[in-house]
Amino acid sequence: MDFLDTETQSPEDSLNWETDFDTPPPLAPQCKSFKWKINVIDTNGNIEGKMLTSKDVWKLQNSKVIVHFDEDSGQPIGDSAGLLGSWLERAWEVVQPKFRFDDPTVRKEYVTSTLGSRCKDVKRRLWGEYSKDTRSETVQNRPDNVPEDQWFHFVHMRFTEKWKRMQERNTINQKYNTMPHLCGRKSFPRRRNEIKIKTGKTPCRAAFFIETRTKPDGSFSCEEAKTRAEELTMVMSQNPRPTTNVSASLDDEYAQVFGPERHGRVRCVGRGPTPSKLVRRSTVTRTEIENSEIVVQLKTELDGLRNEVKGMTTFIQQLIGTSTVEQVIY
Questions:
Q1: How far apart are the C-alpha atoms of 214 and 119, rounded to whole Å?
Q2: Do the beta carbons of residue 122 and residue 2 sit within 8 Å?
Q3: Between 98 and 12, residue with greater pLDDT
Q4: Virtual CA dihedral for 68, 74, 271, 182, nearest 10 degrees?
Q5: Tell me: the pLDDT tens digits for 246-276?
Q6: Would you call 71 helix, strand, or coil by DSSP?
Q7: I need a labelling partner for 108 at 20 to 30 A (CA). Which of 138, 166, 294, 310 fits?
Q8: How high is the pLDDT of residue 40?
Q9: pLDDT tens digits, residue range 195-214?
Q10: Where are the alpha helices (DSSP H) in the chain?
């Protein structure tokens, strides 16, 4: 369950996390029984394919689940991403011993960010199942797997006026989400990777938007999504993309139709990338670059340096030749 640092306390099984591999934490029994097709690597570097549920990860000894990341977005993909996502109800310190990351320092940002999102989902689910009309009734209706003091604090926070105002604001903001995607619980990087495997190239944001709003029968998730898809298709036809696998840029077709990105997030990409991490895709041709003023200036300077080197080389050769003649005469 997700609480602020001041609200949490150490679970009773925290001391046994490293040694008691067969004993999952209190929330683990709620994990899905779905099996993920993943690879595990042992301490000797041997890799083996396995079919594991979220709870099976606790039984791994001397081996870790290999997590594959998408190079474009820096987010996990494939079944390892799904398994990791279902496991993120636990803290980063618990994740590390069981999952192998190519660069833990870099990947921690994604894991902790997703952890917060997953914990919010748990909060939302528990509130929907156990909340009552009054504060006192809700306090009494505590879930068995949530400590009493944490539930008490959580309930009191939810019944404050500040929380109610925030809920009203979120409800209003949610109404602006008029073009829902059809990915379900699958993350954008996982869906993008599936498209990449199928087509051989990374879909741009415009193509990805169209793909994730189109139903199997060819219809769209809503009328507005259809209108936007038609606009994106027109822009893509007018501006053919170069042969690169860049999924997003600040001036791509998606930005031309939907407008610039806001601070802190990039639409139609997924968790992680921010506007500051993107670059503008240059539309300047090679001829224009070669004829640009800066390049011409650099070429002029380079030609000057070449002439200076050539002159010095000739001078040194003349000195060497003169010295040789003098030695012969002597």
A1: 30
A2: yes
A3: 98
A4: -60
A5: 667 777 888 888 888 777 677 878 766 666 6
A6: coil
A7: 166
A8: 92
A9: 889 888 888 889 999 999 99
A10: 78-87, 92-95, 104-130, 135-140, 148-158, 161-174, 188-199, 205-212, 223-238, 253-258, 286-290, 293-329
What's the Cα-to-Cα distance from 205 to each of 188, 219, 222, 236, 269, rounded to whole Å?
11, 19, 18, 11, 7
Q: Which residue has the tokens 């409800």?
A: 171
Q: What's the CA gap between 278 and 251, in Å, rounded?
A: 10
Identify the H or E element spanning 77.
Answer: strand 76-77
Name the residue type at position 329: I
What span, in angstroms and rounded, lies between the C-alpha atoms of 32 and 46? 28
* DSSP structure class, residue 13: T
- The CA distances from residue 308 to 299, 303, 312, in Å, are 14, 9, 6
Whether the pLDDT of residue 4 is over 70: the answer is no
Mean pLDDT of 86-104: 80
- Say whether pLDDT at 295 is over 70: no
What are the residues whose beta carbons fall under 8 Å from the beta carbon of 322, sequence distance 6 or more?
Answer: none
Q: Are 229 and 210 in contact (CB under 8 A)?
A: yes
> Which residues does 136 contact at the CB level (< 8 Å), separation at least 6?
none
CA dist 44 and 40 (Å) reads: 11
The whole-angstrom separation of Cα 172 and Cα 137 is 28
Tell me the domain boundaries of the chain: 5-130, 188-277, 290-318
Q: How would you class 148 by CB atoms within 10 Å of its CB: exposed for 0-12, middle for 13-18, buried for 19 or more?
A: exposed
Does the pTM surpass 0.90? The reply is no
Q: What is the mean pLDDT of residues 129-144?
A: 92
Percentage of the chain exceeding pLDDT 70 = 71
The length of the chain, given as a count of residues:
330
| Rounded-to-integer distance, Cα 210 and Cα 212, Å | 6
